[in-house]
Each structure stands twice: as C-alpha cells, then as structure tokens.
Write a structure and sequence with these properties.
It contains three helices and eleven strands; from the N terminus they run αββββββαββββαβ. It is α+β, with helices and mostly antiparallel strands. Strands 3, 4, 5, 6, 7, 8, 9 and 10 form an eight-stranded antiparallel beta sheet that branches.
Length: 175
C-alpha cells in the first residue's frame, strides 16, 4: 500500500494536467490584449502588430451587401513599409450564420462558393469557420460568432491565415 500511494498521487496530478482547458491559449506577457467589451471577446497580439479601432462615425459599412459596423482591423506594422492588414472585424445585426453565407455567395455568385463550414470553440467562443472561394482563386476564411446582439465576422485577408493564427488562438470570451 505504501508503494501504491505515491503512484496514485502522481497519476492524479498527471490526469489533472491533461484536463486543463485546451481551447484557451495564454498569450505571452509582452503581448497587448484588445478587449471588445460591446461584443464580448478579447484577443492578444504581439508588438509587431496593432489592433486599429475605427472611430464610431466611420464604422457604418457594408460587408457582402449586408449593413454592418466595421469596428477594428488587425495589422502587421513591421513586415512591409506600410502596415499590412491581416483581419477585419465587423458586427452585423439581424443576421445569422445562414443569412451571412447566403449574402456572401450572392455578393459574387460567379466566383464565390462555400467550400467548408465547421464549428469551433475558441476560448469559450462558439464560432463557425467559413471557407469560401474567391475570384482570385485563393480561399478566404471568415470566423463568425454571436457577440452581444450582432453576428461578429472576422474576415481574414487573403493569404494571411497563417500569420493571423497566433492571434486567433488567443481569442477568448469575456466573462
């Protein structure tokens, strides 16, 4: 019994480490955290990037023909001479996932089709990942989730999915 007890404690500790929340990735300490309290989420980004919030009087926009609020963009400030946009953040009221997909395809039906839709739980945010074709023959990724009373659309710029991934993995639902 004396030999069994330390093994039991070790097994419990190892099991406990394996049960930690795998959906939440803690950002390094030198990253900046952006909080979108109105939409219920946060994301962290490294020093070579910036989250650029748009002024309230400049947020009215359309996305895929839908009235939206374009509230922020994530940009890489060091890779090129001018900041490179990685992802755009929109809030769209009175639209669900299906209506968004329909509007996206309708915005350019000759070239846009939905290739993939999958469910994701990122940091407690239940999302839909939507991958569509484009006229440029490069797949485009959108992450959709409900934030407050709006559908939040994170539109990843073409060919920036890999760079955006480290920031995406820090996204969390605000408590």
């Amino acid at each position: 019994m004396k030999k069994f007890f330390p093994l039991l404690i070790l097994a419990i500790l190892l099991l406990g480490f394996g049960c930690q929340n795998q959906n939440s990735v803690k950002a390094p300490n030198d990253w900046t955290t952006y909080e979108a309290a109105e939409y219920g989420f946060s994301a962290a980004y490294p020093s070579n990037m910036e989250m650029k919030e748009r002024a309230l009087d400049q947020q009215d926009s359309t996305y895929a023909g839908l009235n939206s609020k374009f509230f922020a963009s994530l940009r890489d400030t060091e890779r090129e001479k001018n900041p490179t946009t990685l992802a755009l953040f929109y809030a769209i009221k009175d639209v669900d996932y299906e209506k968004f997909n329909e509007a996206l395809v309708a915005s350019d039906p000759e070239f846009i089709t939905i290739k993939e839709t999958s469910d994701i739980d990122q940091g407690g945010i239940l999302m839909k990942k939507v991958v569509s074709t484009t006229a440029m023959e490069v797949d485009k990724t959108h992450y959709l989730f409900m934030g407050g009373d709006s559908l939040i659309v994170v539109s990843v710029v073409l060919n920036e999915e890999e760079v955006f991934r480290s920031v995406f993995e820090t996204m969390q639902k605000l408590k």
